[in-house]
Design goal:
about 200 residues; 3 domains; 5-stranded mixed sheet; 6 helices; Ubiquitin-like (UB roll); globular; DNA polymerase, domain 1
Length: about 200
């Protein structure tokens, strides 16, 4: 290609030089980002399975899972803790709600390796069939469950609410369970169950 009459450079030479400069700048920018990126608590693992220690319901359990394994899958498929339900699997229904350090979160949106060593509470950690948690008992008394898929997550959200606010208003209860969907429509009974516990079980 003939050189430009004024600059003495051909168009091809200009484009090649500009492209090289852009590539170098991109690499330099990437190096800066790599240096500035905050180092999290998660060590690089994978792609094969490895041991993850989970502190669940006060007991440390070890699972051998791939890094992509969600907390929900670890609970259900590796630890036989099937109380947390897989329904939407995308954090939209709340059926898999567990507590992470006492706060309700969706287990399907967390990787098991993200919560290694962090206190986790599942529905199994609240009560037993022989000795129900007061909220579980109130759910039975107020008929606040039908198909049961939403119930574990709904109970976890309600108990978390009552732990932080023992006398919630109806509106506060509605806000607390806003992320828990009940396809059977038992919301009025759930509100009654929370109210029963707030009154002392009466």
């Amino acid at each position: 290609m003939a050189p430009d009459s004024e600059s003495g450079f051909s168009r091809r030479e200009v484009l090649a030089t500009a492209g090289g400069a852009a590539a170098i700048a991109g690499l330099a920018h990437g190096a800066v980002l790599a240096q500035e990126a905050p180092k999290g608590k998660i060590a690089w693992r994978g792609p094969s399975a490895g041991k993850v220690r989970l502190k669940i319901n006060g007991t440390e359990r070890t699972v051998n899972v791939e890094p992509r394994t969600t907390l929900l899958d670890a609970l259900r498929d590796h630890l036989d803790l099937t109380g947390s339900k897989r329904v939407c699997d995308r954090g939209a229904c709340g059926a898999c709600t567990v507590w992470i350090e006492g706060r309700p979160q969706n287990a399907c949106l967390l990787l098991a390796i993200e919560v290694e060593g962090v206190p986790i509470t599942t529905i199994e950690g609240l009560g037993t069939p022989e000795r129900l948690h007061p909220v579980q008992e109130a759910f039975c008394q107020e008929d606040a469950l039908q198909c049961g898929f939403c119930t574990p997550g709904m109970v976890m959200s309600c108990v978390a609410l009552l732990k932080s606010n023992p006398k919630p208003s109806s509106q506060e209860t509605r806000e607390a369970i806003a992320g828990n969907l009940c396809r059977c429509g038992t919301y009025p009974n759930v509100l009654s169950a929370v109210e029963r516990v707030a009154r002392g079980g009466k």
